[in-house]
Amino acid sequence: MELKADCARCFGLCCVVPAFSRSADFAIDKPAGKACPNLREDFACGIHNRLRSKGFSGCTTYDCFGAGQQVARVTFGGRDWRSSPALREPMFAVFPVMGRLHELLYYLTEALSVPAASPMRAEVQAAIDEIAPLTGLDADALLALDLQPYWKLTDELLTRVSSRARAGLRGLDRRGADLIGANLRGQDLRGANLRGARLIRADLRDADLRLADMIGADLRGADLRGADLTGALFLTRSQLAAVTLGACEATREHWQ
To answer: If you ran DSSP here, which 8-state letter would residue 75 be given?
Structure first.
């Protein structure tokens, strides 16, 4: 089981399963279950190196956390939906379920690397050991899963890990805050709770974001040039891919 997307081993599931609407992130409307016109017959993207210039910046910020290749190679044993049309419906239905499982496993694995969470390592590892085997279930069993208990368990553990890591810093609590376009340049956000904060196009240049909890924060178009993200909690590759082009390149490279 891998927690990093390998598109070469998938069947373009993220280019087919979700719907998207014409917007700043997508140049066209596409209904769920219909292949993007840029998806080639070999399941590769025909404009992969030109996604932003072609108006598909939303694709550059998507991360399935390895769920695509797990569904393609494990759940369905390498059979693809084009060669086997009967697999379309179950494969497309399983993909988001697998995506949620892999996302939970990604964040739990990240939690293991947080130094302050060392007293909780056994609990976090136990959660990983409980969830990981689910990714090997067959399609019917995956579709029958109730994911809510696993979401609840993971959220509780990640919240405690975050609290431990940020203890004593008295960081601002901006969880879920609407900070679209906010001028936060140079601000002290060390240890801040920015879970789910909407930071679209926010100016975060030279901001101190050390040990800030970034889980679910929307950083599309945010300017992070000069920002210090040392030890930032639960910051993903897809979040960094969404920042203003050219911003925070050193940090992007760190997450490659």
So the answer is: I
- How many structural domains is the chain composed of? 2
Q: Cα separation of 182 and 36, whole Å? A: 34
Mean pLDDT of 15-25: 93
Q: Say whether 152 sits in a helix, a strand or coil.
A: helix
Distance CA 35, CA 16 (A): 4
pLDDT at 195: 97
In a domain, 14, yes or no: yes
Tell me, yes or no, whether 104 lies in a domain: yes
Q: What is the pTM of this model?
A: 0.91
What percent of the chain has a predicted confidence (pLDDT) above 90?
Answer: 88
162 and 176 part of one domain: no
Yes or no: say if 222 and 244 are a contact pair by the CB < 8 Å rule.
yes
Q: Which of 141, 166, 191 is the last residue of a domain?
A: 166
What is the extent of the structural domain holding 222? 171-256
| pLDDT of the residue at 242 | 87
Residues 188 and 141 in one domain: no
CA 132 – CA 4 distance, rounded (Å): 15
Which residues fall within 8 angstroms of residue 32, CB to CB, at 6 or more apart?
A: 17, 18, 19
178: which residues sit within 8 A by CB, 6+ positions away? 198
- pLDDT tens, position by position, 105-134: 999 999 999 999 999 999 999 999 999 999
* Same domain flag for 60 and 146: yes
Output the pLDDT for position 256.
Answer: 43
Let me know if residue 1 belongs to a domain. no
Residue 55 near residue 38, CB atoms below 8 Å: no
- How many whole angstroms from its chain centre is CA 204? 21
Residue 85 CA to residue 79 CA, distance in Å, equals 10
